[in-house]
Write a structure and sequence with these properties.
Mean pLDDT: 91
Strand order of the largest sheet: 1-2
Helix content: 40-55%
Number of helices: 11
Shape: elongated
Order of helices and strands: HEHHHHHEHHHHH
Length: 228
C-alpha cells in the first residue's frame, strides 16, 4: 500500500495531543428537580458536555452506578431511581445538534415532574452544582505520516490523548468525527473501511482504557487484513 506524497493533504502528519480537564464552577446549583430543570434550560452547552462526558477523564473515587452526573444525582441526591434510569437512556452520541440533546434532557425532567405529586428535593449537602470544563491541551511531540505507523503506539497512548482525539474531537470536527477518522479521510480511499469501523464505535458506555483498546485493535486488524 503506497501513499502519495504529492498531495499536501495526504502528507499532513497526525499530531498526537494530550489533554487534561479543569473543572470550573458556573455558580449555579439546584436543590430540587424543578430548579434543576429550569437551570438546564439555560446552562451553557459546555456544562452539559462536562456532566455527560467529563467523568471519563476525571474518574470518581466511587464506582458510578449511572453513566452521567445528571443520572447519578437523580439517584443519590433525589433518590429517584426511575428518573436516573431515564436520564441514563439519553445518549449524547445520538445527537448531532447539542440543543436537541438539551431539549431531550429537559423533556425527560418535565415528564417526571408531571408524574410526581411533590417536587423531589435533595438534602442540603446534596445540591447539584453545575460545572463546566476547561480543556488544557499538550503537544506530545509524536507525529505520524502514515496510518500504519500509528499501530505500534495506539495501545500505549495516554487516556488524555484518547479523550482529546476520540471524545473532544466530535465537537471540533464539522462531521462530528473522531480525529483518527477525520485524518484518514485525507489519506486516501483505501482507508474507507477503517474509517467506517472507527465511526461505528460508540464511546459513551466505555472507559477511555476500553476505547484505546478498541481503536488499537481496529487499526491492527485493518492492516493485518490488508497484508493478506
Amino acid at each position: 500500500m503506497t501513499e502519495s506524497t504529492a498531495d499536501p493533504v495526504e502528507a499532513t502528519p497526525f499530531a498526537v495531543r494530550d489533554c487534561a480537564l479543569i473543572s470550573l464552577t458556573t455558580g449555579l446549583k439546584a436543590q430540587n428537580l424543578r430548579e434543576f430543570c429550569d437551570i438546564l434550560r439555560r446552562i451553557p452547552l459546555e456544562s452539559i458536555e462536562h456532566h455527560l462526558w467529563g467523568r471519563l477523564l476525571q474518574p470518581r473515587f466511587d464506582e458510578p452506578e449511572y453513566n452521567n452526573d445528571f443520572a447519578s444525582w437523580a439517584y443519590h441526591g433525589l433518590h429517584d431511581k426511575t428518573l436516573a434510569e431515564r436520564l441514563s437512556m439519553v445518549l449524547p452520541t445520538d445527537f448531532t445538534d447539542q440543543e436537541a440533546l438539551r431539549q431531550e434532557l429537559v423533556e425527560v425532567l418535565e415528564e417526571r415532574l408531571d408524574q410526581c405529586e411533590m417536587v423531589p428535593w435533595a438534602k442540603g449537602e446534596q445540591q447539584f452544582h453545575f460545572l463546566r470544563s476547561q480543556i488544557v491541551v499538550f503537544d506530545s511531540g509524536l507525529r505520524f505520516s502514515r496510518p500504519v505507523d500509528l499501530v505500534p503506539y495506539l495501545a500505549n497512548l495516554s487516556t488524555g490523548s484518547i479523550y482529546y482525539h476520540f471524545i473532544d474531537a466530535r465537537n471540533r470536527t464539522a462531521e462530528r468525527w473522531d480525529d483518527f477518522s477525520a485524518w484518514l479521510a485525507g489519506c486516501g480511499p483505501e482507508y474507507h473501511l477503517l474509517r467506517e469501523r472507527l465511526c461505528g464505535v460508540d464511546p459513551y458506555f466505555s472507559s477511555l482504557q476500553n476505547i484505546r483498546q478498541i481503536v488499537a485493535e481496529l487499526f491492527q486488524t485493518f492492516f493485518e487484513e490488508a497484508a493478506q
